[in-house]
Specification:
Helix content: over 70%
Largest sheet: none
Structural class: mainly alpha
Strand content: under 5%
Oligomer: single chain
Radius of gyration: 19 Å
CATH architecture: Up-down Bundle
CATH class: Mainly Alpha
Length: 315
């Protein structure tokens, strides 16, 4: 337990540092958004490109890993969406709630956490999970949001809008470019490698500080939203990793490291993506901000417990 805490706590210490800076006003009111833009448009794409370019593709293609992570997302996102709609909630709001329950913070916390625990060789698997989360799941959620709002009745135009959004997503474009570069066996110049390394090394700390600043600014919520946020927190931190663990260890019989990585990634707290969607579409974001806060705080305990359980399973 103490070993697991020593691995998890530094990550959350950086988040707390960002939270403190936000509460004390040390970095200014726009620091969170500006740091986030730096991570999304420069630092994390550089890391993703580097990881995918250096990836060992025969070991990267692991259908069981992909299927385990995907099943957890589908069950939680789909089940939450159906339940919320059946309970009388608008499809747009139900889609955002479902995103809260299934959108793991793989990009922000997954990279530093897995690199600390499993080493740099695990980052290719984290990249796959990131693409599945920030591109595939995000796109599906936006489709449901758009359908709920009925802003575009022609189906082909609706999907054209989604396609344009994905093409402009640097978290999708960067790893694809890395794959293409690797396919053509073109060496990366040493100067370019140095730039990629510097930017990539800044991704994790800046992302964690940005998350802390975000929580400091968006943590307030009404009492009526708390039960929903707590329920979504339980789905995210307990039910989703449990489903993935059954798939990884019981159904697909993954090797110890990929199995541990996929379970740990599924147990990560909710990322900021759902809040971005809620803000962009002018929907009530109280439940979303509450879920992000609760899952992030509770994950200090749940991730530590997950690491202990996974360690026992591996042995």
């Amino acid at each position: 337990m103490l070993t697991s805490l020593s691995v998890v706590c530094p990550v959350f210490a950086v988040i707390v540092a960002g939270f403190a800076c936000g509460r004390l006003g040390l970095l200014g009111p726009t620091a969170s958004s500006e740091l986030n833009r730096f991570v999304v448009y420069l630092a994390l794409p550089a890391l993703l490109f580097q990881v995918m370019f250096e990836a060992n593709w025969p070991t990267l293609w692991q259908p069981g890993f992909i299927a385990s992570f995907a099943i957890g997302i589908v069950v939680i996102f789909g089940g939450t969406l159906i339940y919320r709609v059946a309970s009388g909630h608008h499809l747009t709001d139900a889609s955002i709630d479902a995103l809260n329950a299934g959108y793991a913070n793989v990009g922000y916390i997954g990279f530093p956490l897995c690199e600390m625990i499993f080493g740099r060789q695990s980052l290719a698997l984290v990249t796959i999970a990131t693409i599945m989360t920030v591109s595939v799941l995000f796109a599906i959620a936006i489709i449901f949001v758009e359908i709920g709002l009925q802003t575009e009745r022609r189906v082909h135009r609706l999907f054209a809008k989604i396609g344009k959004a994905l093409i402009r997503n640097p978290l999708l474009v960067a790893p694809l470019l890395g794959v293409l570069w690797s396919t053509f066996n073109t060496p990366v110049p040493e100067a370019a490698k140095a730039v990629l390394h510097m930017l990539g090394a800044a991704a994790s700390p800046c992302a964690l500080v940005s998350l802390g600043l975000f929580l400091a600014a968006k943590h307030r919520g009404s009492r009526s939203s708390r039960p929903v946020a707590v329920a979504l927190t339980a789905l995210k931190l307990v039910i989703q990793p449990a489903i993935v663990a059954v798939c990884a260890y019981g159904i697909f019989k993954l090797q110890p490291v990929p199995a541990a990585v996929v379970v740990l990634l599924s147990a990560l707290p909710t990322g900021t993506g759902p809040f971005m969607v809620a803000e962009f579409y002018k929907r009530e974001a109280v439940v979303t901000s509450g879920t992000i806060l609760f899952t992030t705080m509770a994950s200090v305990v749940s991730l530590t417990a997950c690491l202990v359980l996974v360690g026992h399973v591996q042995h």
